[in-house]
Design a protein that fits this description.
The chain is α+β, with helices and mostly antiparallel strands. It is built from seven helices and eight strands; from the N terminus they run ααααβαβααββββββ. The chain folds into two domains: 172 residues, Alpha-Beta Complex (endopeptidase fold (from Nostoc punctiforme)); 206 residues. Strand 5 and strand 6 form a beta hairpin.
Length: 456
């Protein structure tokens, strides 16, 4: 019973190799041996595009999500600050209107104070003028009365100056003097009343001036307070705007980082898509090459092998190598079945009580790794044992550095062989790899490579 272990996958491309006219070694091949496409060096596949790992993609997506969340938080903060800024701007506008109104009031109060001061000045001037007129009238009256009592009646400008001719005339002149004196006293009284009225007017004008001055001072204080309130509101709005600008700058920086992260993430995912597309294309090309190689190998096997009821005769040489390879290549695409395969072809697998059973190998008809080798070399008359470890010991052991086309290569762990395949040359091998896979061509896995066994 063989020990079977799952193996890792390698990406391989089998070049489509055609026998070309004029190819030196192919043109002189031994009789009866078809020219093998694998004898021509295969074309190398293009290098794969970068393929970011899942961890790198996850980290990239996490970065995008974190920065997107930060942008969202800052956007919400901006909306809040913007609403506050708008409210402060409304307050600034209100304070501005109040300041303008206060200035208008102060300007009107100033004009009223100036008008009141002008009226008070006029009132003072009129009062002073009235006083001077009263004083002049009183002086004239005093001079007139004194002159009358001292010198007699002298009407001066009235043209009535004359001397009394008799007592009656004297009395008449005396009564005239009294009348004139009384008239001047009445005039003086009127002037005095006018001066008093003017003085009262002056007092009222002064009071109005003082009131206007007080109102102007109060209005100017109110205007100054309104201006201060406006300045405070404007300063608060400026501070809010500065905060808003700061958050906007922060959000812009985070947005830039988010954009860069999204671009990087998009770039990584585009790389992954390109790699997946490349891988799918390589798989398609591989499948096409495998199909062609399988068809060509089957055609050669059919031509070279005659129907026989018993074991085929043992053959040697390069032709036998190519026949063994053709038999293995003709099975490309055949399903893996643990325990499957014999000298006549694929058979139903068997239970292993583990991985193979979980894949249903016991219900499949196919090959496992040693079954494929058994079938391939049976075509040239070599009857191999069933277990891969015994197959690895069934021929000449050669160094890994000297392995050549048609050699069996095997892997071991702790001295126990767990897998075997056939070397095709140019770093390629054909194998039945593990449950769930099929017979295929793969790059040689040198890690763990234990033996190279030469049968031909």
């Amino acid at each position: 019973m063989r020990v079977r272990r799952p193996l890792g996958l390698g990406v391989a491309v089998l070049a489509v190799l055609l026998a070309l006219p004029g190819v030196g070694a192919a043109a002189t091949a031994a009789p009866g041996i078809a020219v093998r496409a694998a004898e021509v060096l295969p074309a190398q596949p293009p290098p794969p595009p970068p393929n970011p790992g899942d961890d790198e993609l996850d980290r990239s997506r996490q970065t995008v999500q974190e920065r997107s969340a930060e942008v969202g938080r800052l956007t919400a903060r901006l909306a809040e600050l913007d609403a506050q800024a708008e409210q402060l701007q409304i307050q600034v506008a209100a304070r501005n209107e109040e300041a303008l109104e206060a200035r208008d009031t102060a300007d009107a109060a100033g004009r009223e104070a100036e008008a009141a001061a002008a009226r008070a000045l006029q009132a003072r001037s009129a009062t002073e003028q009235a006083g001077r007129e009263v004083d002049a009238a009183r002086a004239r009256l005093d001079a007139f009365v004194g002159d009358v009592y001292t010198h007699g009646l002298d009407l001066g400008a009235l043209g009535l100056l004359s001397r009394a001719t008799d007592p009656q005339d004297l009395m008449d002149r005396a009564r005239l003097t009294d009348a004139l004196s009384e008239d001047q006293a009445a005039v003086l009284e009127q002037l005095e009343q006018a001066r008093i009225a003017q003085a009262n007017a002056d007092s009222l004008a002064r009071a109005a001036e003082e009131e206007a001055a007080r109102r102007r001072e109060s209005a100017e204080q109110a205007s100054a307070a309104a201006d201060q309130a406006l300045r405070s509101a404007a300063a608060a709005a400026d501070e809010q705007r500065a905060r808003l600008d700061g958050v906007q700058a922060e959000r812009a920086a985070v947005q830039a980082r988010l954009d860069a992260a999204e671009n990087a993430d998009s770039g990584l995912r585009a790389q992954r898509q390109r790699f997946d597309a490349w891988q799918a294309e390589q798989a398609r090309l591989q499948a096409e090459a495998d199909a062609r190689a399988r068809a060509e190998a089957r055609s050669r096997v059919a031509r070279e092998e005659a129907p026989s009821a018993g074991p085929l005769p043992r053959r040697t040489g390069s032709g036998a190598v190519e026949t063994a390879i053709d038999r293995a290549m003709a099975q490309i695409g055949t399903i893996y079945a643990w325990g499957g395969g014999n000298s006549r072809g694929p058979t139903k697998g068997i239970r292993d009580g583990g991985v193979a059973d979980s894949h249903g190998d016991y219900r499949k008809i196919g090959f496992d790794c040693s079954g494929l080798m058994l079938y391939a070399f049976a075509g040239v008359g070599i009857d191999l044992p069933r277990y891969s470890g015994n197959q690895a010991n069934a021929g000449q052991q050669v160094p890994v550095s000297e392995m050549r086309r048609g050699d069996m290569i095997s892997w071991a762990e702790n001295g126990r062989t767990y897998h075997i395949a056939m070397y095709l040359g140019d770093g390629k091998m054909i194998e039945a790899p593990y449950s769930g896979a099929s017979v295929k061509i793969s790059p040689v896995r040198y890690a763990g490579l234990d033996k190279v066994t030469r049968l031909l």
